[in-house]
Amino acid sequence: MPTTPAPAADTPAEEATETEPARSRSAVRSLLRLWPYVRPVRVRLFTAAVVAVLASCTGLVIPLVLKWIVDGPVADRDTGGVWLGALYLLLLGLAEAVLFGLRRWLVARPLAGVEASMRADLYRHLQRLPVAFHDRWPSGQLLSRGTTDLMLLRMFLAFPLTFLLVNGVTILIGFVIMLAQEWTLGLVLLAPAVPVMIVCWLFEKRYSKVARQAQDQVGDLTTLVEESVLGIRIIKGFGRHRSQALAFRDLSRTLRGTELAKARLLAWIFAAITILPELAIGAALVLGTVQVADGDLSTGTLVAFLSTALALRWPIESIGFLLAMSQEAATATERYFEVMDAEPESGADGTGTSSALLASQAPGPDPGGLRFHAVRFRYPDAPAGSAPVLDRIDLHIRPGETMALVGGTGTGKTTLTALVPRLHEVTAGRITLDGQDITEMPRETLRALVAVAFEEPTLFSASVGENVLMGAGAHAGETELNRALAVAQADFVHALPQDTDTQVGEQGLSLSGGQRQRLALARAVVGRPRFLVLDDPLSALDVHTEALVEAALRRVLADTTALVVAHRPSTVMLADRVALLSEGRITAVGTHHELLRTSAEYAWLMSGTAETTEPTTETAKETAKETTAETPKVTFEGDKR
Ligand SMILES: Nc1ncnc2c1ncn2[C@@H]1O[C@H](COP(=O)(O)OP(=O)(O)OP(=O)(O)O)[C@@H](O)[C@H]1O
Ligand SMILES: [Mg+2]
């Protein structure tokens, strides 16, 4: 089940009280972080706000004209004057409409630009974040931040940001006008101000909590949808669609609950914000009518007063909705910056400086090639105190040499290969390429030097040619492509409908596992890298294709320094020497035949049978399995639900 990292939504009720003051303060602070993006469009936004204030104030002049009409031409029975007043009203209405239209026009384009640039920054940042970050974060959470959250931000900049200001100014001016007309009635209307403010404050506190919850849950739901689309084969193959649908229903039901909680809060604030002022207007109407009857107040003033009060209704009522949008935007900003604040991979970040000093003090010149010096590695998210995956790895692959890396499953072979292109950072020790510490060269240089092919041959939605040429610099063309395809025995490409221009689907799913693997291999060799790291590159190939790939690969490997993870003797044969990885340590290095003679574990791994007694825990596990097999009853009973 996808879980949200970072400060996600907790249990709403209890946590609310203590975290809220910090939260409500940080809502403004969160929104302030948008400034760098808003800065370039500040002039337009400000102009738009001024235009909106003008439009709103134009609306407030209308009641004053009404007063003039009622107390002037209407009282004097001057038809011409009434027409003139009507014309003024029409012009004012038109001006208000034009100004509001102008505001919209002013903000639309720049705000779309703000959204686009924030999205581009997020995407760029995601590309630069270390693999460890992506291991930790569910993809749906990242997706929803790049889509829903950014949309919320654009909407915030378009409406609440401007209208909280515009409405504030309008309300203020409106009240000044009303107080100036008749201060007693004005005070009556002001009476609900304090309770409304309290309601808004309470609302803000509660709403921020559920808004965060809802947005996190959208992320979880996105993750689930994404996983079930990508894993559709497994789901169908195991008939899991029902349980998957149930999981989806549970999550979407939770989200629905949260959305309903939001709606309930909104309903409350709307009710309060509508009813209280309406009551006040009612009271003012009664009082005003009495005053007019007593002759203390002119009819025109009462009309103007009430029209102003009615004109203020929308600015006041919309505050609830604007506050809700602002709160959602604050949450979206927090979520956006949670990702943006994650430390990206640095270039040559100097973490290797101390080891570089050590290296320069070390006696004798470096013999070159790929070297691991006392490398230790623990996954950053591994529980504290757990044993490192790799420990005290000392390995030297000489220039031009091919070293096979052999080890039981889960011993850390993939992990070791990932350290070379710095997909993960070593916890201790260092790795050098021709004597240069990899932490000291810019990542781009490092990754141009080292090419990799992983166990999972990932392809992108692009043409076959583009997928392969990803492994080479911009200069590479047809010749390099064909050579790489030949090395990887990927001639099947030429039989595809559009040859190398054939588009492969998402993750290359339209190709077979072996075909994908060969394309991944072609991608690794296309740039003629000095260093090649292959993680079990031939596992999905039939023996004949494997033999052909090996023959071609041998030519490539002749002048390349390579580390090749191997499970099968046939792949090991590619290598000059073999290193045996066992429980996170290199326990033996030598030629295939040497190791067959000297290492029982190696012989056992290569034999593919249990003839040779295996010295490690695997035997114990096998024995354990056999023991339980003898008492099937117990196992069965235990498994029954
Ligand atoms: N991203 C990760 N975070 C935490 N632990 C991990 C991560 N990836 C792998 N591990 C753990 O590290 C250990 C070594 O995994 P690794 O993938 O390197 O094994 P391997 O030797 O390549 O196995 P195989 O032969 O099955 O491919 C395993 O115990 C695994 O559970
Ligand atoms: Mg592996």
Could you characterize the architecture of this molecule?
This protein is α/β, with parallel strands linked by helices. It has two domains: 8-340, ABC transporter transmembrane region fold; 367-640, 3-Layer(aba) Sandwich (Rossmann fold), CATH 3.40.50.300. The chain contains 25 helices and ten strands. The protein has helices at residues 12-32, 35-38, 42-76, 79-128, 131-136, 139-158, 160-181, 183-190, 193-230, 232-237, 241-293, 299-311, 313-340, 353-361, 413-419, 443-449, 464-469, 478-487, 513-525, 543-557, 569-572, 592-598, 600-607, 617-630, 632-639; strands at residues 370-377, 390-397, 402-407, 428-433, 436-437, 450-453, 531-535, 561-565, 577-582, 585-590. A six-stranded mixed β-sheet has the order 6-7-8-3-9-10, sandwiched between helices. Strands 2-1-4-5 form a four-stranded antiparallel β-sheet, covered by helices on one side. The longest helix has 53 residues, at 241-293. The radius of gyration is 35 Å and the shape is elongated. Residues 1-24, 349-363 and 609-641 have low confidence and may be disordered. The site of adenosine-5'-triphosphate (ATP) has 14 residues, from helix 15. Adenosine-5'-triphosphate (ATP) is lined by residues 135, 379, 381-382, 389, 407, 409-415, 455.
Largest sheet: 6 strands, mixed
Instruction: Return the domain count.
Output: 2
Low-pLDDT sequence parts:
1-24, 349-363, 609-641
How many runs of DSSP E, i.e. beta strands? Answer: 10
Helix content: 55-70%
Name the ligand types: adenosine-5'-triphosphate, magnesium ion
CATH class identity of the largest domain: Mainly Alpha
Write down the overall geometry: elongated
CATH superfamily of the largest domain: ABC transporter type 1, transmembrane domain
Mean pLDDT across residues: 81
Number of helices: 25
N-end to C-end Cα span? 22 Å
CATH topology of the largest domain: ABC transporter transmembrane region fold
Strand arrangement within the widest β-sheet reads 6-7-8-3-9-10
Structural class: alpha/beta
CATH architecture of the largest domain: Up-down Bundle
